[in-house]
Amino acid sequence: MTTIGLDSTPRLRRGVRLTYDKTRETHVLLFPEGVLVPNKTAAAVLELCDGVTTVAEITTLLGKKYEGVRAQDVQDVLTRLEDRRVVSWT
After folding, report:
1. Contact 8, 81 (CB under 8 A)
2. Does the keyword Ribosomal protein apply (predicted)?
3. How far is 49 from 53, CA to CA, in rounded Å?
4. How many beta carbons lie within 10 A of that of residue 26, not counting itself?
């Protein structure tokens, strides 16, 4: 497992795609092994995983949209996504 710092830059792994499923009315994460339905918090983080934006920047951007966003919370979400093998680091 990677140590996720504020300067880490997450991206979706190759073959992983975040899309909005109109039927389910929610985001879904498509990857070769299957489908993952992330909660709203995880989907908001995943939308910002572009391989350029740092964890600190993701936290700031989410903080403008939602109240009480902490870097540790973003790091925790990214750790879980890394464990599921859908996020990697550049």
Report:
1. no
2. no
3. 7
4. 13
pTM (predicted TM-score): 0.91
As a whole number of angstroms, the distance between CA 66 and CA 89 comes to: 25
Residue 57 pLDDT: 98
User: Which residues have C-beta within 8 Å of that of residue 79, sequence separation ≥ 6?
Assistant: 1, 4
Interval 52-64 mean pLDDT = 97
What distance in Å separates the CA atoms of residue 49 and residue 13, rounded to the nearest whole number? Answer: 10
CA distance 73 to 25: 25
- Closest CA relative to residue 46, chosen from 29, 70, 63, 67: 29
The pLDDT value given to residue 15: 96
